[in-house]
Amino acid sequence: MKSLVQSVAAPASNTAKPLYRWSLGIFMLSVIAIGWKYPLLGFAVPVAMLAGIFGGFFRGRYVCGNFCPRGSFYDTIFGYIGGNRPAPKFLQSSRFRWIILVVLMGFMTWRIAQEPGEWQHWGSVFWSMCLITTAVGIPLGMIYRSRSWCSFCPVGTIAATIGGDKFLLEIDHDCRQCGACEKQCPMGLSIAEHRDSGALPHGDCIKCSSCLNSCPREALSWPG
Question: Across all residues in the chain, what is the average pLDDT?
Answer without folding.
Answer: 91
